[in-house]
Amino acid sequence: MTMNKLLILALAAASTATLLPAHAQTYQWKDAAGRTIISDTPPPATSGARAIGARTPAVVKEGVADKTAAEPRSTAEKDMEFRKRQQEAREKAGKAEKEQAAAREKQENCDRARRNLATLESQQPVASVDDQGQRQLMGDEQRTREIEQARRYIAETCAQ
Predict the structure, then answer these.
(1) End-to-end alpha-carbon separation of the chain, Å?
(2) Of 14, 32, 78, 130, which has fewest CB within 10 angstroms of its CB?
């Protein structure tokens, strides 16, 4: 009795294996005489050929099958594309935020340099800290150098 079951199972597997090629691509076209030809091989360079039984419709031109409709995307592919768009948006937002922070810092540095220049140009006494950490009043020569340095920084860095 078990031998019969094994034989039936083997026949079922063999018949399934022989039916698989039946699901191959099939092409249909009209030849020069106007006859309709259906074949499993792509037609010669013929316009108006189409695939039959394919998952997506295809038009055959010059022996090459061009898909006319995009294949449906799976949920995983859609999800992956969505995540990619989200990542790109996050990167773009992060880049914009960094650029804004750099612009704010540059503006603050320019404001500080302008205030420093205004202080140096006002004839009020200005002190600086020396190497030992002691405060010393700036002399005229040092004040002139600091004013030139501040003007150069403002001219190079701060656009008006």
Answers:
(1) 99
(2) 32
- Residue 45: DSSP 8-state: S
Distances (CA, A) of 104 to 11, 77, 118: 79, 41, 21
Q: What is the pLDDT of residues 103-156, one digit of tens each?
A: 999 999 999 999 999 999 988 888 888 888 888 888 888 889 989 999 999 998
- Cβ atoms within 10 Å of 146's Cβ, excluding its own: 17
Whether the Cβ atoms of residue 24 and residue 52 lie closer than 8 Å to each other: no
- pLDDT single digits (tens) 7-55: 788 877 777 766 655 556 777 878 888 888 887 777 776 556 666 665 5
The mean pLDDT value of the chain amounts to 80
**What's residue 130's pLDDT?**
84
- Burial string for 22-53 (b: 16+ CB within 10 Å, else e) reads eeeeebbbeeeeeeeeeeeebbeebeebbbee
**Residue 78: other Cβ atoms inside 10 A:** 11
What pLDDT score does 10 carry?
80
- Note the maximum CA span of the chain: 117
Count of other CB atoms within 10 angstroms of residue 152:
11
Instruction: Indicate the residue type of 48.
Output: G
